[in-house]
Amino acid sequence: MKVSVIGAGAIGGWLTAGFVKGGAEATVLARGASLAALQNTGLVLEADGTTETIPVTATNDPDQLRGADLLLLGVKAHDLPALAPVIEQIMTAETLVMPAVNGLPFWFLSGFGGPAEGKTLASVDPGGTLAKLMPVERVVANVVHAASRVAAPGHIQLVKANKVILGGQPDGLSDIAACLQRGGIPIETTDAIHREVWMKLWGNSNMNPLSALARADAAQLHDDPGANSVIRTMMQEMADLGVRIGLEGFDDIEGRMATTRKLGPIRTSMLQDVEAGRPFELGPILGALVELAELVDQPVPMMKGIHGLAGLLDRNLRAV
Length: 320
Description:
The chain is of the alpha/beta class. 45% of the residues lie in helices and 18% in strands. It has two domains: 2-191, NAD(P)-binding Rossmann-like Domain (Rossmann fold), CATH 3.40.50.720; 194-319, N-(1-d-carboxylethyl)-l-norvaline Dehydrogenase, domain 2, CATH 1.10.1040.10. Strands 5-2-1-6-7 form a five-stranded parallel sheet. The protein is globular and about 50 Å long.
């Protein structure tokens, strides 16, 4: 199996290592210090007290990635639209694509059914470009439950790996799952990938923006009565939105919050973005839900308010 990679960072790098350890060949698109590190040393993976170097081919030429069996996209979801020309340059008629992104992915409403079927969300896919470029039948849908960080260019530190859930209908899904499993990635497959996406987002869509606004970790948010009340309200609004579009059964708010509590004082990706001065991944994680709610006439006043506040913070921080 030949795998091309755009975004061999915290999660993309971990998955790339899994593919190579499972028997695949990987070619990574990189630049600057990352390109130099990958070419001179290889991809370094630090996990469970051990450090290993994974052999990859690294290049800054997208043409060198063309013709792979699978294109792994490990960039943040809000960066995907700008990469559309590069993705189009790489993909062939036989290439599958695995976008390992947070939030509501561009493929989510294709073939979904119900009042949201086929709608395009500008928050994740302006103009529907990504959905046209990467049709759902060629998408290896996935949900990643893991935490890792980039310790240095080309050097990934795995913090925690719970599981990666794969779904969708592309031919070759079982081969991809088997390869990752051989490479040490904890894999599950499911026929209900939309529910898995929604379940993860049910926790992330509130904790992420609230942590950025309050500069607080997850434990602090849960322990504060006011913040706790906002979390519950946002979760109920998302559960109601789920019913509206055909995803029922998201009733156990206490159980979902208990799962997050077990993770302790985690610093969400948006909080880390604030601290590092990076743009927030707000559109895919919360903006898409607010936009979807408007499209299907479902009121979500708390989600809409928090989205507005987080957006103001993002713009004001970058205007300084």
